[in-house]
Amino acid sequence: MDHEKKAVVLSSGGIDSTTVMFIAMQKKFAVYSLSFNYGQRHLCELKAAEKIAKSIDVKKHLVLDIDLRKIGGSALTDSISMPEAKENSGIKSNNIPATYVPARNTIFLSFALAWAEVIESSNIFIGVTAIDYSGYPDCRPEYIESFERMANLATKAGVEGKTKIKINTPLIRMTKAQIIKKGLTLGVNYSLTHSCYNPDVSGLACGRCESCFYRKKGFQEAGVVDPTKYA
Amino acid sequence: MDHEKKAVVLSSGGIDSTTVMFIAMQKKFAVYSLSFNYGQRHLCELKAAEKIAKSIDVKKHLVLDIDLRKIGGSALTDSISMPEAKENSGIKSNNIPATYVPARNTIFLSFALAWAEVIESSNIFIGVTAIDYSGYPDCRPEYIESFERMANLATKAGVEGKTKIKINTPLIRMTKAQIIKKGLTLGVNYSLTHSCYNPDVSGLACGRCESCFYRKKGFQEAGVVDPTKYA
């Protein structure tokens, strides 16, 4: 049995998950970063996740292939046209955007749970935020709490009553600007991160999708220079 | 909007999931069967699942590739040696067997949830049973109830308060013998099903693993001729 404190951190190569990874490292966790090749249009995020994992001392970086295109239902994986950001997009307008990928966080957290069980980690970190976000149902605190309860019934740990699985969401109540400021104090190099849902062939951000919208807004509100190259 | 009653049915090609599929059809659901190529040693189960889907009128049969070998931790996917069945295997002896695949049902149900959301189905069927089983934590009723609560917070349906997702487990309180008897009344052809975790190269069942153990016991207790070819 390895007594090192381990954490599985979901990494999309974006601002949020990268900040979360630094928070986990600051808390002295050995980080096991996990990314998914799920048929997303914006494969640049996988390259970003890999660069970030290499740039810091993660224990292991794992990329899993899961073809969500076979299931469909999202502008991120299908040939549905990519919506541009609107100030009122998302949950506040009772309108979940086309970029929502059905059950994505549930699928991602399920794999994280499997890996955590195998490496004997009881901590999973995910960079969800319920503030500057697109209104996806699987980013809300009540969803995360519910996943955690389920996770503790799903696993050996739950049956044997040993360690409890904890789903850590350190950003859930933070604005994008607060996240960026926090990350900078921890040494995050945001120029390595990628947010755009619809980059051009050379990987440059479109500057118009929801994800670019929240990224730009975050840097602006934080009073920090945005290192992103826009097309 | 399609008003046909649809159900996603997890199909492993075994006795339980095949019986569940027939139960769903009897309840007049249009069946969308879902199987996983997860790096299991016993790929015969995928062929069985496909044959079963073809033999009845399923709407669609989907096989998703998810490489759980990259995560490891189970005799079903790794080169861990396959345990033989013991009368006291499983949860009753506080001993989860080596064939347990970490978080497998959580992963499978998460994909089923995604598909259900896309096809606008609010019913998922899974053939878990908490009677003649191997003691996997993710087969217990309290786990399933917890997954269902989580699923309703994870999805559009949950946010919009439209349809509720229901995880149907019609076999959960049934013995293997009861399942087989039920299936026969519904017309299941069990010779198409495959249970063995460790078949030989020609696909013949080993007759010694946990899964063969429960299968044999089921046919015997049901007083039904076992159509399985053992090596």
Share in helix of chain A: 25-40%
Kindly state the number of beta strands of chain A.
Answer: 5
- The unreliable regions of chain A are 87-93
What is the subunit arrangement here? homodimer
Structural class of chain A: alpha/beta
Beta-strand proportion of chain A: 5-15%
Tally of individual domains of chain A:
1
* Largest sheet: spatial strand order of chain A: 3-2-1-4-5
Distance, first to last CA of chain A: 50 Å
CATH architecture classification name of chain A: 3-Layer(aba) Sandwich
Report the average pLDDT across residues of chain A. 87
What pattern of helices and strands is seen along the backbone of chain A?
Answer: EHEHEHEHHEHH
Shape of chain A: globular
Query: What is the fold-level CATH name, i.e. the topology of chain A?
Result: Rossmann fold
By CATH, the superfamily of chain A comes out as HUPs
**Sheet with the most strands, sense and barrel status of chain A:** 5 strands, parallel
Radius of gyration of chain A: 17 Å
Q: Mind telling me the CATH class of chain A? A: Alpha Beta
Work out the helix count of chain A: 7
**Which two chains touch over the largest interface?**
A-B, 45 and 45 residues
